[in-house]
Design brief:
This protein is α/β, with parallel strands linked by helices and about 400 residues long. It folds into three domains: about 170 residues, no CATH class; about 70 residues; about 130 residues, CBS-domain (Roll). About 55% of the residues lie in helices and about 15% in strands. The protein is built from 13 helices and ten strands. A hairpin with a 5-residue loop joins strand 9 and strand 10. Helix 7 packs antiparallel against helix 8. The longest helix has 30 residues. It is globular and about 75 Å long.
Length: about 400
């Protein structure tokens, strides 16, 4: 799975879209590889600029396709009442983080199949554009990826995008949990058995089986002399095995804490700073007194406006601290990632990156009023109690 640190690109409909730092390495490698690929296809010289430009366009379009794939999952999940907090592009594609697991096999199936359907649509559109512009014969010539194919650069890009999205579609439909195909297999097993736990274990076992197959094939490629392909396939297998095991464990956690809400374990008497308090007052009466790294900031109706962290308060020049209010220096949090609903299931906080970073999160009601604060320690205690009680 992607690393915890990621660079935010933008926020769309409350979903934080970012890239893991490993993505930049893959982007660089893809551009270098595609440059040579387009140079061979177009028969261009080593110092020609066109292959590099086509490589950059293709690489960005490819990762755009991956993002659309994940947004397909997110759109269906949101419609089924499951919030997607973030989408991260990383070394092996993209990951959409759901705040909780699916509650029915139908929901699981719809969310899982949404991404592949988007990828299929992209491949079909690219093929249709290529055929409409150049004709079927010339497009299939470009698809065969022959050296000196005598095709235009634009057609070569469209053909490559068609091919790579078709490849992504096939790979994602492999029934290896947590790939989309594995999630579809889990949904089917869940429907047949009526037991999400058994279905998850079945899908996880499938995922681990395919991961060992990938590792074995990677070893064979290494022996045959394909070092890069062997290492890459072996690494995919290793990551897939770890991810399958992690998802099975997370599903077990979710089952054991099912029914527990944030409100059941949170601190219901939170300390909050009023929005009109000066930064000087915040430092003297709150940060120095309680020694906490941050505080929620509320208005007169106790609506949560955001958080003020100690570094932000300290950064205000001393002469201005008595006149500047905390409302002017708070983290407003337009994406809603620095808060959690008091009625949200506790499982929605498992793996929450902001909870890890801040150590706690403010909990709000349906109207956005501050109702409590839940800490990582409280979540951990609830998990230990649930696991110890069975």
């Amino acid at each position: 799975m992607p690393a915890r640190g990621a660079l935010t690109l933008f926020v769309i409909r409350g979903i934080r879209v970012g890239v893991d730092y490993s993505w930049f390495l893959v982007l660089f490698l893809v551009i270098i590889w595609l440059s040579g690929f387009y140079r061979d296809v177009l028969g261009a010289s080593d110092d020609a600029a066109e292959p590099y430009l086509l490589a950059v366009v293709s690489a960005l379009a490819f990762f755009g396709s991956i993002l659309l794939h994940e947004l397909g999952h997110a759109l269906v999940a949101n419609r089924r009442g499951i919030r997607i907090s973030e989408i991260t592009l990383w070394l092996f594609g993209g990951v959409a983080r759901m705040d909780r697991d699916s509650d029915t096999p139908g929901t699981e199936f719809r969310i899982a199949v949404a991404g592949p359907l988007v990828t299929l649509a992209i491949a079909v559109v690219c093929a249709a554009v290529g055929i409409a512009v150049a004709g079927a014969d010339e497009f299939w010539t470009a698809m065969r990826v022959e050296e000196d194919a005598d095709v235009s650069g634009a057609l070569a890009v469209v053909a490559w995008l068609t091919f790579i999205n078709a490849l992504v579609l096939i790979f994602n439909l492999i029934p290896a949990f947590p790939l989309d195909g594995g999630r579809i297999a889990r949904a089917i097993a869940w429907r047949l058995t009526g037991d999400r736990r058994r279905a998850t274990r079945f899908a996880g076992t499938l995922g681990q089986g395919f991961s060992y197959a990938f590792i074995g094939l990677g070893v064979l490629l290494l022996i045959s002399g394909d070092v890069i392909g062997g290492i890459w396939l072996g690494l995919i297998g290793f990551i897939l095995a770890q991810s399958a095991r992690g998802h099975v464990l997370q599903s077990e956690f979710s089952r054991r804490i099912e029914g527990i809400r944030v409100a059941d374990v949170m601190d219901t008497d939170p300390v909050a700073i009023p929005e009109d308090a000066s930064v000087e007052r915040a430092l003297d009466e709150y940060f120095l007194r309680y020694r906490w790294p941050w505080f929620p900031v509320v208005d007169a109706a106790h609506q949560l406006l955001g958080l003020i962290e100690r570094p932000a308060a300290d950064s205000v020049p001393e002469p201005s601290r008595s006149s500047q209010t905390v409302a002017q220096v708070i983290d407003v949090d337009p994406a809603g990632t620095l808060r959690v609903s008091a009625d949200a299931p506790l499982e929605s906080l498992l793996g929450n990156p902001q909870l890890r970073r801040l150590g706690a999160l403010p909990a709000v009601d349906a109207e956005g009023r501050l109702r409590g604060v839940i800490t990582a320690e409280q979540v951990g205690r609830a998990l230990r109690d649930a696991l110890g009680g069975t």
